[in-house]
Amino acid sequence: MSLINRLETSAADFDARLGTLLDREDAASLAIEERVREIVASVRRDGDAAVLDLTRSLDRIRCDSVAELEVPAERLRSALENLSPAPRRALEFAERRIRRYAEQQKESGWLSEDEFGNQLGQRVTPLDRVGVYVPGGRAAYPSSVLMNIVPARVAGVGEIIMVVPAPDGIINDLVLAAAALAGVDRVFTVGGAQAVAALAFGTDTIPPVDKIVGPGNAYVAGAKRQVFGRVGIDSIAGPSEVAIYTDGSLDPDWAALDLFAQAEHDELAQSILICPDTAYLDRVEAAMERLIADMPRAEIIRASLQGRGALIQCRDQAEGLSVVNRIAPEHLELAVAEPEALLPEVRHAGAIFMGHHSPEAFGDYCAGPNHVLPTSGTARFSSPLGVYDFQKRSSIIHCSQRGGQALAGPARALAEAEGLDAHARSAAVRGEPE
Amino acid sequence: MSLINRLETSAADFDARLGTLLDREDAASLAIEERVREIVASVRRDGDAAVLDLTRSLDRIRCDSVAELEVPAERLRSALENLSPAPRRALEFAERRIRRYAEQQKESGWLSEDEFGNQLGQRVTPLDRVGVYVPGGRAAYPSSVLMNIVPARVAGVGEIIMVVPAPDGIINDLVLAAAALAGVDRVFTVGGAQAVAALAFGTDTIPPVDKIVGPGNAYVAGAKRQVFGRVGIDSIAGPSEVAIYTDGSLDPDWAALDLFAQAEHDELAQSILICPDTAYLDRVEAAMERLIADMPRAEIIRASLQGRGALIQCRDQAEGLSVVNRIAPEHLELAVAEPEALLPEVRHAGAIFMGHHSPEAFGDYCAGPNHVLPTSGTARFSSPLGVYDFQKRSSIIHCSQRGGQALAGPARALAEAEGLDAHARSAAVRGEPE
């Protein structure tokens, strides 16, 4: 069995085969949904007692109160201070770049005056309190801690609460160090649907938040869906994806490594490379066959590439980019000598990596832009996580007396047309001369 | 029975009573959810045939194809041209002001260069195709047509598809005129969950869209929830609300009319006025008792005020504004002489109407800011509908060779710390000298 699927846009069954590869139907298990509903209800009803109970049984932690599950500020500080120099430098380098990029996203309000002396504007304020979910156990990613907390901090969020499961009491020091560096306010070692429910409804110990962000397993995602509306949530992330468009100028070894980097996340991750040149695709496939032997996560990479990966031969650049737009990938590499020329043809992608020296892995860690990106084709209508996700807008309408008189007539006419007489009267009294 | 509830913040049961009034638990009927699931599945499976079938039976329309349900462009134009001068002027006045305000919201991208010569930025592009749901029948609101279509148009959305049910073939000419004025591309007289499903999945006749916005009944809201993820949606709107804070300087008749204007929407609408002065609250209540007789929609107003309305006496301004923040109202009127002084204390509100000459009714029609606003306390974390809802962002990462060499080390270190070796390799090869 070959390492990766080969497709040609000229084949009669291309559309169908691509459709099958891209199929993102998530058959969210009804059993999980039901279990999540029970957990959310019990935390809502019993608060701390339910959180304690679930954490003791699911994460096998011995403790007598939720307060004991809070990580002391001192522990966060020491995790950062005790980090060895190399990872600490890398973490600080990444944090600084993520923060600098985020600062450029910060939005501010405006106020303008119309011809009648009415002031109209938009006020922008940070959210009061935000919860950040961080997965624990094996998939503990300090980079995700930075990517979720830094933009909230830059937005000016009043209080940032992080939750992270610590199965068997084990917690990753690099995760705590990243949280301290990013500026978290409080950390609780609680995870799963119970952590999401506690953040949404609040308990005696865990304060309720206004929005919950951060990745998690099916229980976490299910709980976020269920509390959505009471609190804001970020998007529900699907498997990670990369699409690489190249004219054949990307070193085949580099192409192979970029595809592997995506595929090693998990078996559902998707790595696609599109190029008009069959000979080049052969060289990439050969490089993959050669390099796979060196990969510690080769088993996951193989499963991902065979199940969802593809090398696609297209007729020309225009067709290649139309395939990219159909995919609307989370990550897009435009691995050509002059990527700017292609940019106007790209309509949908979460992040666009331009040229040969911008691998997607830079974006995961330290390029600066957020690595939380729209997956599963949602780049058609949504955006990377950013400072704007932690700010909200309020409209400002301040009419002068004269300005109110100018608006009263049209408002009244439209209200009457809609049969809303109290609206019409409320508008009309502002139109009467003093 | 008095017309409206009276509360005092000093009462021992104030928190509980306010909590009961604000309770927004929407017991979404399981029966409706199940029926919506069937409708969505049948439209997804059978496309036009299902849409035709459902429209014939639910809206009692005789037709032989979905194509017949499209409103011809000529019909849209003539609806606008045949409008009598007064409503046409009012509609044009409103459209111009909504457009001008929206133009100030339009976001544009940026690109900046770091110290290593890497270019980082954010690209902002409009959505390709958007669906706008417009309720039909009695609650046909041309103002909502403008409020939903104009920002999409200003954002530069490629194609705007409107759906509006026409029960018994009846369609409101003012709605068509507003759609024509706002610049809609195509209109189908299809409604309910079947319209939402058709827009989300596409049929042979109705093209699939990337995002669906606009208000609707429980079936429409349920369908939007179910297709969310495949397409974007705006928020699910709850009942409309106003909170008025006044020091007692707002004419009691005006206060009464502003409360009525909110209450007349429907029985679940919420009208709350907060003031430290009991005597003033008595005067407002007396004005309401007197003016209610004139109101054509008195029955709805009474039900709304008795069920969910309140005059609240607070101790002082600071406490009054803390009640406002707890409510996080969709609409807030700051009916005081110098509202600017209060603004810093307001943390959550969808739209803020400043002073005595800015009734909420202006915001519904022609002030300029959007009347689609966060309800049910969601102003804590969400924003008015705006141009930004029809734009999306993509991150841009363009490393120079030297810049890539600078990022390679830290990216590799963090990838290794996370145990992602292919990421580390993909980064590392960019760090090697040529």
TrEMBL record, chains A, B:
Active-site residues from the entry: 330-331
Reactions catalysed, as given in the entry: L-histidinol + 2 NAD(+) + H2O = L-histidine + 2 NADH + 3 H(+)
Keyword tags: Amino-acid biosynthesis, Histidine biosynthesis, Metal-binding, NAD, Oxidoreductase, Zinc
InterPro entries associated with the record: Ald_DH/histidinol_DH, Histidinol_DH_CS, Histidinol_DH_monofunct, Hstdl_DH
Gene3D superfamilies: 1.20.5.1300, Nitrogenase molybdenum iron protein domain (3.40.50.1980)
Keyword Zinc-finger: no
GO molecular function: histidinol dehydrogenase activity
Residue numbers binding Zn(2+): 262, 265, 364, 423
Cofactor: Zn(2+)
EC assignment: 1.1.1.23
Metabolic or biological pathway: Amino-acid biosynthesis; L-histidine biosynthesis; L-histidine from 5-phospho-alpha-D-ribose 1-diphosphate: step 9/9
Enzyme class: oxidoreductase
NCBIfam families in alphabetical order: hisD (TIGR00069)
Task of the protein: Catalyzes the sequential NAD-dependent oxidations of L-histidinol to L-histidinaldehyde and then to L-histidine.
Protein name: Histidinol dehydrogenase
Natural source organism: Natronospira proteinivora
Gene of this entry: hisD
